[in-house]
Write a structure and sequence with these properties.
- 29% of the residues lie in helices and 17% in strands.
- By secondary structure, it is α/β, with parallel strands linked by helices.
- It has a 6-stranded mixed β-sheet, with helices on both faces.
- α3 crosses α4 (130-137) and α5 packs antiparallel against α6.
- The termini are far apart.
Length: 195
């Protein structure tokens, strides 16, 4: 079976810890020995090397010019560059993914970016706190009534989380992608969270 690609959207100075759990569970299988249905790929605005907040240097697989059409989901990993002019180049990519009913997940400032572009106004969501979201998302964000103060929120194919909840974010992304059975996803979550 051909594995579906999940595209991690990373800008320079991305928060590496926010991607590790979900990337590993997708790329290696939710549980060791279980089927692997996805392949993790990375995308940035250009193919120039980017560096994480932790100092890891990464060469993106794709840029905006060679992004494939047949991927299964986008995962926006946090970092401060989501408030920069370069982030505006990602807007059409997200809009297309949502229109095509693909999974779109944002953690930390990736979720704020979704809010700033109006994508959280009609779905249940969370972020780095409601006040933070309202402050940094600006006037296009009108979804306060749908905000839920939880570690991660999944509403259909939209998943959001604060930067402090990468394990919960992982679980909800796995559910949104139907990456494995609910039992396997919960077992993986319990293992990762030390329960």
């Amino acid at each position: 079976m051909l594995k579906k690609e999940i595209i991690f959207v990373l800008l320079d100075e991305f928060a590496d810890w926010e991607s590790t759990y979900v990337a590993t569970c997708l790329n290696q299988g939710v549980k060791p020995g279980n089927p692997v249905n996805y392949r993790v790929k990375t995308l940035s605005v250009t193919k120039d090397p980017i560096t994480s907040l932790g100092g890891f240097k990464l060469l993106p697989d794709y840029d905006l010019n060679d992004m494939p059409d047949d991927y299964a989901g986008l995962i926006l990993i946090g970092g401060m560059r989501w408030f920069s002019p370069e982030a505006a180049h990602i807007v059409p990519l997200v809009e297309k993914a949502i229109k095509e009913d693909k999974v779109v997940a944002g953690i930390c400032n990736g979720s704020v970016f979704l809010g700033a572009n109006g994508h959280l106004n009609n779905v249940k969501h969370t972020s780095n706190g409601l006040d933070y979201l309202k402050q940094f998302a600006g006037e296009k964000y009108t979804g306060e009534a749908h905000y839920i103060n939880e570690k991660a929120v999944r509403d259909g194919k939209i998943v959001t989380a604060p930067g402090t909840a990468p394990i919960e974010f992982c679980r909800e992304v796995l559910y949104a992608l139907e990456a494995d059975t609910p039992e396997a996803i919960e077992e993986s979550y319990n293992f990762l969270s030390g329960k």
